[in-house]
Amino acid sequence: MADLVLGLAKSAVEGTLSAAKSAIEEEKKLKESMQRDLMLITDELEMMQSFLHAAKERAAADEMVGTLVRQVRNMALDVEDCIESAVLVDMNKDYWWRRLIPSCMLPEAPAAALDKAVTAAQLLKSRVEAMGQRNERYIHMGDSGSKPTEKTHQQAVADAAAAGILIEARNAKKRHGSPRDFVELINNKDHVLPLQVISVWGAAGDLGVASIINKTRDDPGICSKFSCRAWVKLTQPFNPHEFIRSLTAQFYTNLHEQRSAEDLLTKPFNPREFIRNLMAQFYTNLPQGQRSAEDLRKQIDAMMAMEGTKLTEEFVKLLSNQRYLIFLEDVSTTVHWEAVRLYFPDKKNGSCIVVHSQQLEVASLVVGKSQQVLELEQFSDEHSVCVFFNEKRSCPRYLIELINKKNEIHSPLQVISVCGEIEDLRVASILNTCDKNPDFCKNFNYRAWVKLMHPFNHDEFIRSLLNQLYTNYCQRHASAEDFMKLKYAMVDAAGGVLIKEFVKQQMNNQRYVVFLEDVSSRDDWNAVSEYLPDKTNGSCIVVQTKQREVASFCVGQSHQLLELELFSDAHPVRVFIKEGEDEERAIKMKAAEEWLQNNPLAGRATDADNLNANDRGVRFVSGIAGVGKSYLVRNVYFRKVIKDKTFEKFSWVDISHLFSIMDFSWRLLLDLHSGSLRHANMLRIRDPIQACRELLKMHNCLIVIDGVQSTEQWDSIKAALAFEHDQNRSRIIVITNQRSVATYSWVVQGLEIEDALDLFQATASTRPGSCWPSEPSPAEIERAKSVLHKCGGHPKVIVAVANFFADGWIIPNDYFMKVLENHQAFRSLADLFCWVHSYFQSCPDNLKPCIFYLSIFPTNHNFRRRRLVRRWIAEGYSTDNKESTADEKGEEFFYELCMLNMIQVPGTTSLTYLTRMPLCQVNGFFREYIISRSMEENLVFALEGHCRANSQRSGRHLAIGSTWDRDMIVYQSIDFSKLRSLTVFGKWKSFFISEKMRILRVLDLEDASSVTDGDLEQMVRLLSRLKFLSLRGLKEITRVPQSIDGLRHLQTLDIRHTSVVTLPRSITKLQKLQHICCGTTVHLDDGTSTVESLPPPPAGAAAAESSSSMSRQRAATLVSWLRLPESRRRLAGSCKVGIEAPLGIGKMMALHNISVIDVSVASGQAVMEELKNLSQLRKLGVSGVEGENCKKLLSAISGHPNLKSLSVWLDRNQASFLDAISQPPEELEDLKLYGCVDKLPAWIKQLPNLRKLKLQMDKITQDDVNLLDLKWLNTLCLSSKEFQYRELRFRGPFHRLWVLEIDCNCRLQSVTFQNSSVMQQLEVLRIRCHNVSSLKFSGLQHLRKLREVTLSGSYDDNVKNHLKSELGKHPRDIKPVLKES
């Protein structure tokens, strides 16, 4: 959590520095002493900013630095508060002194108030200076001692890699055939192999390493194999003579003198002792009969006379004649390893070096490419001892595994050609392998090794074959009857009776393996084949030849030929294998069918459908760890294996945490060639990269690359294999946790709650011995849902929690994250937590406060995107810079958190639809993670349930939950002196506002109730620092007080859906106000197809009435509307109302958004005239547009440089005026036209950036529909009373349309999508019906990406049934989903 603190501190300092500079530049009336203090503080803040950048690497590990970071943050916030209090914001020079510290609420003399501000600034200056002195003093003290290990971003990444390696090592240990311990691993090495290097690494420490090495060194089997053994520790810095001394000391320890290695290591190094000790060690390890003290003395004396290079050469020469096992402890760098490696020659006699390193990277690199990792011993969840090794195999074992690769009795005859010397294969040891490889013996009852004679002689071949079958027959694993037949046949053959037919018959009935030595021609092979039939019983023939063309001929000439080489350079043997494409695909299809049967897809229809597209090139799939990316793609991949005939080859390659492009290419090639080559590490291709390139050129391949960890890895793969996004014949799907790997990727989001419940139920109820019922009660379902909301939709977490419940456990609500992080049952989530920890440590500092801020909102609570972004801006988390505005940066932050699944959009997983961001939620899992961190920073605290009074309860942000019991005593015990935001959920109480909240910036009551006009007046009077005030949805609020001008810093005023119908004139004094959200919309469950406004204000003479009188009349009308019973509201239609804006609004130069204002009032035309002055306006909503004021509106927006959103409510028969605009605003992205529109304005076609269009018309014609085919349009909403020919017919392509909404009545009879090119990107179709009894749809099959159709309102069942039938005809395997709402 130190990283979050640091991010908060940086954000605070940056915001305060900006405020201080602005104060110095803008305020000319400040007292000179205050200006000097602010300048000094500004300089110090810049130093603080530099300090925070430098402290990033130490704050997490150094407690003193962490404390200083917190002090810097708090100081920055206090400075900012002082600046906001002292800086003059009243542009009236006569009253500039009123802008003082807000605690001075009572009137006082200007000079006294200014003196107080000056005193506050001087006090802050003193604090800043004192902090600098403390910093210098304590940092020096800290530097004098030992410095803690600095945890950098790279270290965070390394921690993530280490956790991944640990998981991989533990999985390897579970696999059948893995070595059980270190001794077995070393003993498995054959004597003929080259020098082996094995590394030992302790995850989270070196506990247990010494005991494992000591046990291995003293093992009798190890002692018998390695005559020379030593265990030495490398000193730092590395020195060759020091290393030799340590090695010698270790050898000498095992001699007759009973001295410890530690004692010897502490003695001064004497180079002349080196050979003496080394020879003593060798002497000790020699068999008793070969020991001679005299010989030892003579050799030592001879070598003692040597110095320098000569000594080293003799030492290397001495080791060359021995098979040695060396344990090197504490190799810290690869440089040290390279230096040490020179002293150990490789004579390919099976010697071995075991390297111990505390550094994961070193342990990995010393082994070389294509290493494997294995857990030797586990001491805790976090700590294990692991080994890295390179599985180099000698010829006998290699051939055994290669022969056994098709271990199926019904497989066709396998022919393997070996092009090289047969002596290297040691065939006799393979055939007589019953003890070492009993499975091989069981699989092949008949085993023979026959050397062909030249010219070929049939009789001699049969004799040799029978002799070998008899000699190698194992009666322990085969029948005595077959053995006796062979014995009699041998007698007959020896007597000169040739029994060719008998041999053919016997070979027909048995599964055999025959080695044919020295096959020199095709004729030889053809002659031999007569006696070795293929009865598809899994038999195998190994052909040895020196002729490459003969080797190829025996296997079978075809492009299916695969050429491989042995790993070791000592065995220049080429192996030819013919892969059976049909057979291998059948194997993969069988595996795919089994996986799909056992692993149903839950709630991923949209994602799977998108990935199912047969687009060529590269497709990226990203998402956080545990969200189910691999599971989803595997489902798509296996379905392609079974059904898709366009791909010829398939491969799934997991990227190892120890990435090597050669290893990756090798595994990719082997998987493409053969799904049954399970022992991929036994072979090496001469140039696997080039082989992969050629294969991708020749075949259509579907390749999945899972676990790409960085752009460097992907760049390496892409360059090596020449992947071209738009030119490749194959389809490559890349799965990654890092969105930076690709500019565009399909981001996998969490499961919806119902899908999560299905997955939970399926997992918990099917677990053996489950305590969870197969048919849970409603109470049990609700209990499960309350936990699932905290799982954040992550399948991995859901499955782990389901298994936990199935075992009879429960998770207390307040300890959800603690249980997940610490309970043994959730060890499978280690990689997820590792990713989360790593991200929180490495994410941008300015994003960290935004993440922490999310915990304000309760679990499963919806909020609007703009609400959160504007709060971030008010808090100073998103500020202007040279590249972007605060609003743009806030949108970027929001998008980033959506991509990380920290913010979710309920009801959809499609990113195209996600861009609309209707309502959002905080991901439950991340919310629990944030609130479970250390609360020492007191950033966010909440009141829930029943709380006790606690004077220590304080923080920057307070959230009052709906479940809190509203205890005044508890509330008044809270320290509000630092409080910056207050968010209320549920019932409001008047005591929630306190005069102690002098620096409160954000007051969010959007989810509150029972707030009155009197409460609002109290807020305005006491909370003069407010920057964000939301009263949205509070119908009890009927007016905005005139004292609103006291909120000089206010940026956002949200009174949408209140009963306010007019804005006070005083609001025009708020020069920092950017957003005014006002007006009221009443949505009805089954409203009409057009919008009916409230009764309009009086016309003619009535228009001359005072605005106050009109406001009261309209307020009374609106209040009476809101108080109508629900049934009467349905009869009256829906209500959309703007509010009256005051004159002078054109002076509010900072205004970005004002919506909705009513321009039908007397001052309406003057207000629209003033709108021309608002050049920074981005969003405008106006109602009551008619006649002359329509022209005024068009004049105001004509050519507007920044307007992006326009909403217009037209009175009757005013649509014709819309064509009178001289220059449409080119930046317009969102256009809404409401009212009785009978004709679309032609200038819609002139809006190059229009993304969203919502129309409410009297009648829609075919010409109107054709006009709507706009290049960049994403969302189209249509509502009308009448439809030409009672149909909607879409002909144009609508290239980028994602969402289509149709609001219709009984007059619409059909909706047609005319051809296969229409709306190819459409994903969501929404139909809202009003008393519809018959509505037909045609052409839905043309909408290739349609995934969801929503049907709502009032309609007959035949409409639903018809729509369901049409969707069932959709050509995709995964049909679009029909939803009713």
UniProtKB/TrEMBL annotation:
<keyword id="KW-0547">Nucleotide-binding</keyword>
<dbReference type="InterPro" id="IPR058922">
    <property type="entry name" value="WHD_DRP"/>
</dbReference>
<dbReference type="InterPro" id="IPR032675">
    <property type="entry name" value="LRR_dom_sf"/>
</dbReference>
<comment type="similarity">
    <text>Belongs to the disease resistance NB-LRR family.</text>
</comment>
<dbReference type="InterPro" id="IPR041118">
    <property type="entry name" value="Rx_N"/>
</dbReference>
<keyword id="KW-0677">Repeat</keyword>
<dbReference type="Pfam" id="PF00931">
    <property type="entry name" value="NB-ARC"/>
</dbReference>
<protein>
    <recommendedName>
        <fullName>NB-ARC domain-containing protein</fullName>
    </recommendedName>
</protein>
<dbReference type="Pfam" id="PF23598">
    <property type="entry name" value="LRR_14"/>
</dbReference>
<dbReference type="InterPro" id="IPR027417">
    <property type="entry name" value="P-loop_NTPase"/>
</dbReference>
<dbReference type="InterPro" id="IPR044974">
    <property type="entry name" value="Disease_R_plants"/>
</dbReference>
<dbReference type="Pfam" id="PF18052">
    <property type="entry name" value="Rx_N"/>
</dbReference>
<feature type="domain" description="Disease resistance R13L4/SHOC-2-like LRR">
    <location>
        <begin position="1138"/>
        <end position="1359"/>
    </location>
</feature>
<dbReference type="Pfam" id="PF23559">
    <property type="entry name" value="WHD_DRP"/>
</dbReference>
<feature type="region of interest" description="Disordered">
    <location>
        <begin position="1088"/>
        <end position="1109"/>
    </location>
</feature>
<feature type="coiled-coil region">
    <location>
        <begin position="17"/>
        <end position="44"/>
    </location>
</feature>
<dbReference type="GO" id="GO:0098542">
    <property type="term" value="P:defense response to other organism"/>
</dbReference>
<feature type="domain" description="NB-ARC">
    <location>
        <begin position="195"/>
        <end position="389"/>
    </location>
</feature>
<dbReference type="InterPro" id="IPR002182">
    <property type="entry name" value="NB-ARC"/>
</dbReference>
<feature type="domain" description="NB-ARC">
    <location>
        <begin position="439"/>
        <end position="579"/>
    </location>
</feature>
<feature type="compositionally biased region" description="Low complexity">
    <location>
        <begin position="1100"/>
        <end position="1109"/>
    </location>
</feature>
<dbReference type="GO" id="GO:0043531">
    <property type="term" value="F:ADP binding"/>
</dbReference>
<feature type="domain" description="Disease resistance R13L4/SHOC-2-like LRR">
    <location>
        <begin position="978"/>
        <end position="1094"/>
    </location>
</feature>
<feature type="domain" description="Disease resistance N-terminal">
    <location>
        <begin position="13"/>
        <end position="86"/>
    </location>
</feature>
<keyword id="KW-0175">Coiled coil</keyword>
<feature type="domain" description="NB-ARC">
    <location>
        <begin position="611"/>
        <end position="765"/>
    </location>
</feature>
<dbReference type="InterPro" id="IPR055414">
    <property type="entry name" value="LRR_R13L4/SHOC2-like"/>
</dbReference>
<feature type="domain" description="Disease resistance protein winged helix">
    <location>
        <begin position="856"/>
        <end position="904"/>
    </location>
</feature>
<keyword id="KW-0433">Leucine-rich repeat</keyword>
<keyword id="KW-0611">Plant defense</keyword>
